[in-house]
Structures are given as structure tokens and as C-alpha cells.
DNA sequence: CATTATACCTTGTATAACAAGGTATAATGT
DNA sequence: ACATTATACCTTGTTATACAAGGTATAATG
């Protein structure tokens, strides 16, 4: 029963829910990448080590919502690859979600920095 | 078709998934609060405006996992209230999840701060 | 011609936030 | 007295999404 690591990673999975959209939009900001290339980029960070089963449906959603474009292209000798890029709508969305993210970071850090017992009111 | 606000708030909902456990543990750090009191505290922050239908099942999970204790207590004339407090396990969990959170903030900020086109390798 | 590597896609499962309801009791209004 | 409101906790059904585990197709290699 290797359960302790499972319990740990369950938090990670839930943390990814909700940040992954932001993460993929940010990764595509100023870049045009195909699926596995994007996946490799995200594997450089502990927080964003996702699998293909997560990435492709996510990209489908982003495309469906008009936030990214998808385009098959053949680069030289390689097999065709589907390249994703931000639309202007996606770029705006990235800005909006990024602001939300900064707000969340601020709020949560405030909570972390103010343990009780105390009113946790408007001090300073 | 009041859809634009709905689309905005969908991101918020998903962002809460995965941060709420951390948030509630942090809120209970050094405090002993009953349900609605905890709810009011969380309503002071934009990111953590949740409802009772979210809070009570969440507290049940935390209790089931041994991270918090729940205790009915009657304070003077008021009706009995269920007071929640961190266990030592919960305190340790808060530390662990807090570290994970800092890692996530660091990773995501790195992604946000490094738009392409660029390898996004080990620069500096 | 079997195997491996690359690249994309699909299905089923589990989790968690939420809206919308519910119960019970104390305080207040008329 | 009795209806209403406020407080406090709880439950059910819906929805979204990350993931494991599978699948398809093609090109290069043994």
C-alpha cells in the first residue's frame, strides 16, 4: 500500500486544475508550438508535468473557445504536426487570467502570513 | 445570454479547486473557528468567497483525513456551534502544501515572465 | 517485416466546487 | 400565541476536468 505518495500527489492534481489553462496560455505566449513540444516545455517545471491525456483535450477546449489556433504544418522531412498559437482573444484572456492569478497569490499569501489568534481585520 | 460573466467565473471556480484545502488549513492555523465564522473570514478575500455547500463537505474531508478536529461547544447563550481546529497532522500538512504552493507560484511566474520566441532554457 | 519512435486522439473514472435545497432552534414582530 | 426572520449545520445532484490507459497512423530502424 504505497499510499503516502498518492495522497501527496492528489493535492498536486487538484492544484493543476484551474492553473493549467493559465499555464498553457502563458506557454504559448509569443511561441508557436506543436503538442509534444509544448508538453516537453511544461515538463521543465515541477508544477506542470502533465500527460497527453490532459494536454490534448485542454487544447481542444482552448481552440473551441477561440483562444488558440491549430494548424497542421509539415516542417521539412518530418511528419505533419499540429501547431498551436494564441489568438488575440487568447492573448487578452491570458492578461485577464493572469490578473486573477496575481490576486489569488496575494490573497493566499495574506492568509498564510497571518496566523491567529487575531481578528485578521484591516490592520497595519 | 449573460454568458461573459459566467465564462469569467468558471476560471475562478477551477482555480479554487486545489487551493481551497490550503486556504482552509491556513485560515485555521492558530485559530479555532466554527463553520459560518470561517466562512465570513474567507469572504474577506476575493479569491476565497465560497458557499456553505462547498465549506461543509470540505471540512468533512479534512476531518476524515485527520487534519482537523470538530467539536460541538456552547458559548454562553448562543446555540451550539461546531468548532474546528488544526491537528498536528493538519499543521504538518499545511507546511507541506504551503511549500507546494510556493513552488507552483514560482513555476507559473517563471512561465509568465518568459514569453517566446525563445528556447526558455537555462538562461540568465 | 517486426519493432521502435513520433505524433495525435479517445474513453472511462475520480474528484471537488457549486446551486439549491433541507432541518432545527432561537430571537423578533404583531 | 404564532408567524417571520436569523443563525447554524447538512445533503443532493450537476458539472468540469485531470488522469491513466488505451488507441491510430506513419516513418525510420534492425
UniProtKB/TrEMBL annotation, chains A, B:
Residues 24-95 form the Transcription regulator PadR N-terminal domain. Pfam families: PadR. SUPFAM superfamilies: Winged helix' DNA-binding domain (SSF46785). It comes from the Bacteria. Gene3D superfamilies: Winged helix-like DNA-binding domain superfamily/Winged helix DNA-binding domain. This is PadR family transcriptional regulator. It comes from Alteromonas sediminis. The lineage of its organism: Bacteria, Pseudomonadati, Pseudomonadota, Gammaproteobacteria, Alteromonadales.
